[in-house]
């Protein structure tokens, strides 16, 4: 992107949505992803994103954070814990 | 990997290995969740054991109106809460900090220090085990209420309705806690992984 087009880009995105600064956009991300924004707010949010690469990046990072959290692996049970739980099960079986 | 449903069927048939497999699947999350209500690892482990005993004892009455894990986590949270109250531990209130530190925005509210790029690099630069450990550390660093919601929603992938049921909180409260927690995890990842390839 040339300096001039970059300047035009910024001045355009800056003047079109003066009412929704980036600082507010980052606070709307979860409501956006949860489908909890009112229609008008969702439109303002998406319009801001269309002109703001940083907030677009931010949204992508939040999505990636959620995806990575979903891939946290469970730690294995230790052999002792395995024995404890097997014992728990067997005690329960004899409870009658 | 066996589904919860098939493990439940085997468990009802008296299959001990199905029980251990279920314990293995949910142990870390249950322990982590219990720890946000009680003060020590030992007490949290007791709560987890009590929960499994309650699950075994309740198996006959479990009608599968909710999923097995929702039922499981609900029992756990109720027990952990009761134990936590008995321990008279003060419950931390959700902190109300911003998603991104205010110093990163200019006076107009536009980014002054924009997010550093890391998304594609995360899994290339760091192996899955390290990434998991990093995220577990981040999760453990969250305030209790935020950790509970992020754990159930994003790690265990319960629906928002299920999370509200398990924790007995409103949808709006759930979203606020989720937002704070996720925002902190993102910031942690940016701090750890950002700025590498630009």
Question: What report would you give on this structure?
Answer:
- The complex is a heterodimer of chains A (96) and B (198).
- With 96 residues, chain A is mainly α.
- Chain A has one domain (3-93): Arc Repressor Mutant, subunit A (Orthogonal Bundle), CATH 1.10.10.
- Helices cover 74% and strands 0% of the residues of chain A.
- Chain A is built from 5 helices and no strands.
- Chain A has helices at residues 3-16, 22-33, 39-51, 53-69, 79-93.
- Chain A is elongated, with a radius of gyration of 25 Å.
- Chain A starts with a helix and ends with a helix.
- Chain B is mainly alpha-helical.
- Chain B has 2 domains: 4-86, Rna Polymerase Sigma Factor, Chain: A (Orthogonal Bundle); 102-193, Arc Repressor Mutant, subunit A (Orthogonal Bundle), CATH 1.10.10.
- Chain B has helices at 4-12, 16-35, 41-58, 68-86, 122-125, 128-140, 144-155, 160-167, 171-193.
- In chain B, helix 1 (4-12) crosses helix 2, helix 2 (16-35) packs across helix 3 (41-58) and helix 6 crosses helix 9.
- Chains A and B meet through helix 2, helix 4 and helix 5 of A and helix 2, helix 3, helix 6, helix 7 and helix 9 of B.
Total domain modules of chain B: 2
Number of strand segments of chain A: 0
Order of helices and strands of chain A: HHHHH
| Residue runs with pLDDT of under 50 for 5 or more positions of chain B | none
CATH class of the largest domain in chain B: Mainly Alpha
Q: Any idea what the CATH architecture of chain A is? A: Orthogonal Bundle
CATH topology of chain A: Arc Repressor Mutant, subunit A
Stretches of chain A where pLDDT falls below 50 for ≥5 residues? 1-17
Strand residues, percent of chain B: under 5%
Q: Count the DSSP helices of chain B.
A: 9
Instruction: Return the structural class of chain A.
Output: mainly alpha
Sheet with the most strands, sense and barrel status of chain A:
none
């Amino acid at each position: 992107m040339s300096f001039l087009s970059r300047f035009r880009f910024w001045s355009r995105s800056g003047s079109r949505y003066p009412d929704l600064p980036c600082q507010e956009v980052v606070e709307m991300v979860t409501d956006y992803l949860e489908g909890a924004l009112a229609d008008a707010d969702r439109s303002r949010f998406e319009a801001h994103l269309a002109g703001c690469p940083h907030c677009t990046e931010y949204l992508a990072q939040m999505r990636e954070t959620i995806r990575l959290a979903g891939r946290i692996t469970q730690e294995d049970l230790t052999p002792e814990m395995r024995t404890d739980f097997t014992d728990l099960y067997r005690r329960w079986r004899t409870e009658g | 990997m066996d589904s919860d449903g098939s493990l439940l069927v085997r468990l009802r048939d008296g299959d001990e290995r199905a029980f251990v497999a279920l314990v293995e699947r949910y142990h870390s999350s249950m322990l982590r969740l219990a720890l946000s209500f009680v003060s020590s690892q030992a007490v949290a482990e007791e709560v987890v054991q009590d929960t499994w005993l309650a699950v075994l004892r309740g198996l006959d009455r479990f009608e599968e109106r909710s999923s097995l894990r929702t039922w499981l986590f609900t029992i756990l949270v109720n027990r952990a809460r009761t134990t936590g109250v008995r321990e008279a531990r003060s419950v931390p209130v959700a902190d109300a900090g911003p998603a991104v530190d205010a110093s990163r925005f200019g006076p107009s509210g536009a980014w002054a220090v924009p997010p550093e790029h890391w998304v594609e690099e995360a899994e290339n630069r760091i192996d899955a085990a390290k990434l998991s450990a990093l995220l577990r550390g981040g999760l453990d660093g969250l305030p209790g209420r935020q950790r509970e919601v992020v754990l159930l929603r994003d790690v265990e992938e319960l629906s928002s309705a299920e999370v509200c049921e398990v924790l007995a909180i409103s949808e709006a409260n759930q979203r606020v806690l989720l937002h704070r927690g996720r925002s902190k995890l993102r910031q942690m990842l940016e701090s750890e992984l950002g700025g590498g390839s630009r």
